[in-house]
Amino acid sequence: MVYYNDYDLKYPDLILEILEYFDFQNSDAGEVKDKSVLKFSEQFKEGNTLIYQPTVVNRICKRLCDCGQLECIRSLGGMGLYDNYLFIVRDRAFFEREKSRLKYYYNSMVYGFEYIYRMYKDIVIPLVWDKGNGDYAAGTGFKFLDGVVTAKHCLTDVTNLQIKGYKASELEGKPIYISENKYVDLAFIHTGRIAEPIIYSDDGEIMQEVLVMGYPKIPTFTDFLTAEKATISGKASSRITPTRGRIAAYGYEYLANIDAMLITARIRGGNSGGPVINQNGCLVGIACQIPDANPKNGEYDDMGYGVAVPADNLIDIINRKSKTLEVRQGFFRDFIE
């Protein structure tokens, strides 16, 4: 990421270091007003060379201010070497306990969707099945906690399934958890393999920008990961659907008896089961099929909205583990590259 000199790749702990340096509780009264971007950078040297360029550090600080995480208490203009900032940790125990999560959260916030895409690209995986006529169909899954998430219809509407990165022998006999609500188009294959990197879930908000990732069927490709930025445009409690292109609505799907998330991104059949990710890198939804859609044509919504199941439905399935989906022996096959 040129604007930040690729610091997201080189120095993944930098943002937490900045926040801890400017944390009010890590300072004596006199030190608070005496701190600066330059003094922070001077702590990290290789010989006489600063590891972190103060100008880049200041860009990060300004971005954190834009996101409401830092307060600028002194700005002298120019290169920002002597700019001073203030950070207040409101729950010290939480900050110390959840540093790994907070690092991912702040890095996503500052470095944006390019960073988030890199974090997710190895855990969003294609699902492929042979239609028996020489043709194939594709869907999407992603690694989450200790299993693989996908759309339920990717398991129920097919006769066999290949999942990239998994051998049939690893998947054979593993429990597949689904919702008690038959219309919730989600399935969690409990593989027992811990997903890396760890990703977190959150509630999506109307007009929040999101990234949608998946493997729509593209002629001659079985492994073509697409990513599209969009917006949440509304919630079920409000039928108003702004058209800026984000999470557009939480519309109540009467056939499914759930609150479906509408997003202004292209979601086609092969995207089913893919994650919908917000600006903080958190999973807010899963691309799905609504009950009255035509899965053959990928007609998810006549108005052009993509449809996703809010992430809390997935968390409920994983926590309850109350209903399983049975598939025949030999259903899973080794993924063919």
Low-pLDDT regions: 233-245, 297-301
Q: Supply the number of structural domains.
A: 2
CATH architecture of the largest domain: Beta Barrel
Rg: 23 Å
SSE pattern, N- to C-terminal: HHHHEEHEEHHHEEEHEHEEEEEEEEEHE
Cα-to-Cα separation, first versus last residue: 31 Å
Number of strands: 18
Give the proportion of residues in helices: 10-25%
- Class derived from helix and strand content: alpha+beta
Which sheet architecture does the biggest sheet show? 7 strands, mixed
CATH topology of the largest domain: Thrombin, subunit H
Description of the structure:
By secondary structure, the protein is α+β, with helices and mostly antiparallel strands. It folds into two domains: 2-111; 123-337, Beta Barrel (Thrombin, subunit H), CATH 2.40.10.120. The protein is 24% helix and 25% strand. The protein has helices at 7-10, 14-22, 29-34, 37-41, 54-66, 92-97, 99-111, 113-120, 153-156, 168-171, 311-320; strands spanning 45-46, 49-50, 71-74, 84-86, 124-130, 136-144, 147-150, 161-163, 176-178, 187-189, 209-214, 226-234, 246-253, 258-263, 275-278, 283-287, 306-310, 332-333. The protein has a seven-stranded mixed β-sheet with strand order 9-10-7-6-5-8-18. Strands 11-12-13-14-17-16-15 form a seven-stranded mixed β-barrel. It has a two-stranded antiparallel sheet with strand order 1-2. A hairpin with a 2-residue loop joins strand 6 (136-144) and strand 7. The longest helix has 13 residues, at 54-66.
